[in-house]
């Protein structure tokens, strides 16, 4: 019987592949631990988050937690319960990882790190040389925040995109991410667009320079059908298309694949982002090292639990 518990705080945790993957990962990593889901509806009252974080802190069998959809709300409700917050938690104003150190809670925003690892998986090291390409991120929520902060931090020491364009249908999300970008020192120019019509997004695609990266960070194609662009949209020549979903109908990815040969596109889905997101948190919570070699073993073990259709469609 596992002696330690790892909490997964989400909305519908039972549907996640990690519930089947974690027991195999625990064996590979030598952890005597089990995963336990904790479902909370979106925009729950602050008392709900306080109750969960207090239970994590006070239960000696719990090592820590991964937080998905509630990263911002949880920190807002429970900031005073954390002994330590890492720099990314302060910048992004969220917590995706809760680790216990000497019985005290440490909070981390790991998505900035894991998004960088996922980018390195499919973006060539010299891709941004010359600074002539852009990034268009459709969606301005948590994933967009992590990716944009990652690129802004890298821009201080490496080649980077010329512009980072963000699109959302909710003014508040654009305002929030703009406030985060205002804290950063970067050579990247950030631009923000409030669009409610996919045709408007098509127009932005048409203006992108060759080699630009287009990201679907809206959630469309997984939790809800559709795509943030129409079938008439044209991806940039020699560009990259990143579908952050790793399951669901993923229409955005199908649209990119239809142009892959003609436009010389590199296409990636969200599977490696999912894997790095989890392994980064597990490594922090259990104070273990996940080297490149171990990550490959974990990825191989996880692949068998991927929905069959997504395994076949992986680019």
Layout of SSEs?
Layout: E1 4-10, H1 18-29, E2 33-39, H2 46-58, E3 62-67, H3 71-78, E4 84-85, H4 87-92, E5 97-101, E6 104-108, H5 111-122, E7 135-138, H6 142-154, E8 163-168, H7 171-181, E9 189-194, H8 198-206, E10 213-216, E11 240-243, H9 251-258, H10 260-263, E12 266-268, H11 271-285, H12 292-303, H13 308-313
Parallel strand pairs: 1-2, 1-3, 4-6, 7-8, 7-10, 8-9, 10-11, 11-12
Antiparallel strand pairs: 3-5, 5-6
Structural features, described:
By secondary structure, this protein is of the alpha/beta class. The chain is 41% helix and 19% strand. It is built from 13 helices and twelve strands. It has helices at 18-29, 46-58, 71-78, 87-92, 111-122, 142-154, 171-181, 198-206, 251-258, 260-263, 271-285, 292-303, 308-313; strands at residues 4-10, 33-39, 62-67, 84-85, 97-101, 104-108, 135-138, 163-168, 189-194, 213-216, 240-243, 266-268. A six-stranded mixed β-sheet has the order 2-1-3-5-6-4, with helices on both faces. A six-stranded parallel β-sheet has the order 9-8-7-10-11-12, sandwiched between helices. Strand 7, helix 6 and strand 8 form a beta-alpha-beta unit. The chain is globular. The termini are far apart. 41% of the residues are buried. Mean pLDDT is 94; it is low at 311-315.
């Amino acid at each position: 019987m596992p002696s330690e518990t790892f909490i997964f705080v989400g909305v519908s945790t039972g549907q996640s592949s990690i519930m089947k993957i974690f027991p195999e990962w625990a064996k590979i990593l030598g952890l005597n631990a089990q995963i336990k889901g904790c479902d909370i509806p979106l925009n729950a009252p602050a008392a709900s988050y306080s109750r969960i974080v207090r239970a994590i802190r006070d239960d000696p069998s719990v090592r820590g937690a991964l937080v998905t959809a509630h990263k911002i709300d949880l920190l807002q409700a429970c900031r005073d319960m954390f002994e330590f917050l890492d720099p990314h938690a302060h910048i992004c104003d969220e917590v995706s990882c809760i680790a216990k150190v000497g019985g005290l809670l440490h909070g981390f925003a790991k998505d900035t790190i894991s998004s960088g690892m996922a980018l390195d998986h499919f973006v060539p090291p010299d891709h941004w040389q010359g600074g002539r390409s852009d990034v268009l991120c459709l969606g301005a929520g948590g994933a967009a925040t992590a990716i944009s902060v990652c690129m802004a931090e890298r821009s201080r020491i490496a080649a980077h995109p010329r512009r980072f364009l963000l699109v959302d249908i909710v003014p508040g999300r654009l305002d929030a991410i703009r406030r985060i970008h205002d804290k950063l020192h970067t050579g990247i120019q950030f631009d923000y667009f409030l669009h409610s019509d996919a045709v408007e997004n098509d127009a932005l695609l048409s203006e992108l320079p060759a080699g630009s990266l287009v990201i679907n960070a809206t959630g469309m194609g997984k939790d809800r059908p559709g795509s943030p662009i129409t079938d008439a949209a044209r991806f940039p020549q020699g560009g990259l298309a990143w579908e952050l979903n790793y399951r669901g109908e993923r229409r955005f990815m199908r649209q990119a694949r239809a142009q892959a040969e003609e436009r010389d596109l590199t296409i990636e889905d969200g599977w490696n982002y999912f894997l790095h997101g989890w392994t980064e948190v597990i490594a922090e919570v259990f104070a273990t090292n996940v080297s490149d070699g171990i990550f490959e073993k974990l990825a191989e073990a996880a692949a068998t639990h991927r929905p069959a259709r997504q395994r076949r469609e992986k680019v």
